[in-house]
Amino acid sequence: MEERPETELISIPATPRASTPEILTPSGQRSPRPASKEAKSSTAWTPTSFISPRFLSPIGTPMKRVLINMKGYLEEVGHLTKLNPQDAWLPITESRNGNAHYAAFHNLNAGVGFQALVLPVAFAFLGWSWGILSLTIAYCWQLYTLWILVQLHEAVPGKRYNRYVELAQAAFGERLGLWLALFPTVYLSAGTATALILIGGETMKLFFQIVCGPLCSSNPLTTVEWYLVFTSLCIVLSQLPNLNSIAGLSLIGAITAITYSTMVWVLSVSQQRPPTISYEPLSLPSFSASVFSVMNALGIVAFAFRGHNLAMEIQATMPSTFKHPAHVPMWKGAKVAYFFIALCLFPVAIGGFWAYGNLMPSGGILNALYGFHSHDIPRGLLAMTFLLVVFNCLSSFQIYSMPVFDSFEASYTTRTNRPCSIWVRSGFRVFYGFISFFIGVALPFLSSLAGLLGGLTLPVTFAYPCFMWVLIKKPSKYSFNWYFNWILGWLGIAFSLAFSIGGVWSMVNSGLKLKFFKPPN
Predict the structure, then answer these.
(1) Predicted pLDDT at 439
(2) Integer angstrom CA distances of residue 146 from 108, 140, 156, 258, 305
């Protein structure tokens, strides 16, 4: 065997201008590390200080590279994160290559949807002043609690809270946190899926009527059959394996939401207003009925700001190191997303109420546009608006169903200690889709359901994050930060109870007991 020349075994001494090679971290990010004069002048000992050019000079080049890479890795990580091996089998944490763009897509898809279409219904009960004020306060409040959730994702060194329930357990305790967070988060996912089936199926029916026109057959599909068609499409799309794999769908959902939200309020404002329009809040026969209606309307406003139950899950799809923590790209994406959310929600609420006043039907601005102006707007433009709503509902169904899929698979993998096969995974998603369909058939009341959902799930968005910040971050007792978060948290709980009562009253007052077992035609 031929010996190497002696010159190859001698390493080149480091010079002040030399720089450490790029380090490829486990997350796939390259981190160049130029030599620092301050670092060289420092005499403080560190765990990697023995890996110096003086120490490495007698060592061959391959070993030198290994030790330098190890030094860069230790400096890059800074701490060891304990990973649960089961996370690699679950759809939320199966892929961790997310970025700020994915965060913006997911947050925008989750934050804008059918709930924006019923905001003018709330304004019909609240009027101009209280409607705009409540919408503005809710927007600022939920943006603050979203920032809290983003910061708490890695509040404890070496631990990532990948799901909302995990963070609640860390703050409130294992058992109490599970009871407080599991029901509203699962209810929010399942209730949103049910409402998406309602609005998606009804919109598909209206789209077919607009496109087909007088050429429709004498036996068109019933509303329930359109629900079934929409559910089947949702089940097909739900076969995508994990949260990062639906980033493209979230982008489509975000684009369609912005487009149809803009089209709906522009088309409504551009048409002539009804002659009998009024902007006075709807008056009801009794004081108690008026109070409950206002509570239900505020619940609709609260439900417009959904998506906080997905914040931890979205952030869990991103790589995180000590130098590049996940909260930085997550907050960048969230800020962009909520800028566009504001551009969608406020014009729809204000423009819709300006166009229809208290004549707004309970189904929202989309029903008002079709009912008042179906003959005034070109049929192609109206059909495009309804088709965009369908696409958005299909995309939103996927991201809101992902935590439920994750729960199903977590139970399975815990019992069997192995990942779900493709057949088991598909079976879970088909089962969930049809369960949501049957609930949608039994509860076809969109605006009342939105108010109740807003009341029951309000703590997830407005209350729990404030409590979690105090319990995990432990600000100084009796400081402004301490008082501020405790007051916001308890206000959120009080509003949740009031809005839930208003939502139940609205459902009962709408004749739910008489219609519960009678599906629509």
Answers:
(1) 84
(2) 13, 10, 18, 21, 11
Residue for token pair 């010079």: 15
Q: What is the pLDDT of residue 72?
A: 56
Using CA atoms, how far apart are residues 11 and 57, in angstroms rounded to an integer? 6
- Interval 307-315 mean pLDDT: 89
**85 touches 411 (CB < 8 A):** no
Q: Is 307 helix (H, G, I), strand (E, B) or coil?
A: coil
**pLDDT tens digits, one per residue of 13-41:** 444 433 334 333 333 443 344 444 444 44
Q: Distance (Å, rounded) from C-alpha 224 to C-alpha 450?
A: 20
Local structure of residue 90 (DSSP, 8 states): S
Q: How many CB atoms lie within 10 A of CB 305?
A: 24
- The pLDDT tens digits of the residues spanning 381-398 come to 888 988 999 999 999 999
Q: Dihedral of the CA atoms 408, 410, 416, 419 (nearest 10)?
A: 100
Coil/strand/helix, residue 417: coil
Long-range contacts of 219-224 (CB under 8 A, 24+ apart): 222/520, 222/521, 223/444, 223/519, 223/520, 223/521, 224/441, 224/519, 224/520, 224/521
Q: Which domains are assigned to the chain?
A: 97-510 (1.20.1740.10)
**φ, ψ (nearest 5 deg) of residue 392:** -65, -40
**Phi/psi of residue 311, nearest 5 degrees:** -60, -45
Q: Is 14 helix (H, G, I), strand (E, B) or coil?
A: coil
The secondary element (H helix, E strand) that includes residue 30 is: strand 30-33
Return the pLDDT at 445. 60
The token pair at 288 is 């108690």
d(CA 315, CA 150): 8
Assess contact for 106 and 399: CB atoms under 8 A: yes
Burial class (CB in 10 A: 0-12, 13-18, 19+), 241: middle
